[in-house]
Amino acid sequence: MARTDKSAAIAELTELFRSSSAVLVTEYRGSTVAQLKTLRRALGSEAKYTVAKNTLARLAAAEAGVEGLDAALKGPTALAFVTGDVASAAKALKEFSKENKNLVLKAGVLEGTILNAEDVAKLADLESREVLLAKTAGALKASLYKAAYVFTAPLVKTVRTVDALREKQENAA
């Protein structure tokens, strides 16, 4: 690569590091172009999957202020720059690695925190943002229902007591 090409590649990678909420590092040794194309489709618009030279990725990460990825940037490296739901992207990578043993999750960076391979796998096991939001909404709805029930219970009890007293009075007369 010519020096200008390298500078352009570093600038592009630096911008991707800066604009991403997370970066997931993988090793793609032995994967075919068709397999990587399938993986890119699986990631969709959530992430941009880029094959990068380790030296250029190290320089771009340092320029973007991301530290701690040097150990993971060895061997054939591809980076998933996640701009959407991190759990969905990690899940797509994990599912793809189950089918294609050539893809190995090595590390990641989530909002400045370095993740090892186990952390990325745990992140992949999380449910998607939509599912978590739906569960939260369900829990809030249940709490509101319980609160409404607690507030209406004394009224219902009072009405039943008055009704029972009225019936008792009618039966006594």
Descriptive account of the structure:
By secondary structure, this protein is α+β, with helices and mostly antiparallel strands. It has helices spanning 3-19, 33-43, 54-64, 86-99, 117-125, 129-172, and strands spanning 22-27, 47-52, 77-82, 104-110, 113-116. The protein has a 5-stranded antiparallel beta sheet with strand order 2-3-1-4-5, with helices on both faces. Helix 1 (3-19) packs across helix 3 and helix 4 packs across helix 5 (117-125). The mean pLDDT is 82.
Compact overview of the structure:
This protein has helices at 3-19, 33-43, 54-64, 86-99, 117-125, 129-172, and strands spanning 22-27, 47-52, 77-82, 104-110, 113-116. With 173 residues, the chain is α+β, with helices and mostly antiparallel strands.
Content of β-strand: 15-25%
Rounded mean pLDDT is 82
In which range does the helix fraction lie? 55-70%
Biggest beta-sheet profile: 5 strands, antiparallel
Gyration radius, to the nearest Å? 28 Å
Beta strand count: 5
Q: Please report the distance between the alpha carbons of the first and last residues.
A: 105 Å
Low-confidence stretches: none
How do the helices and strands follow one another from N- to C-terminus? HEHEHEHEEHH
Strand arrangement, largest sheet? 2-3-1-4-5
Structural class: alpha+beta
Count the helices. How many?
6
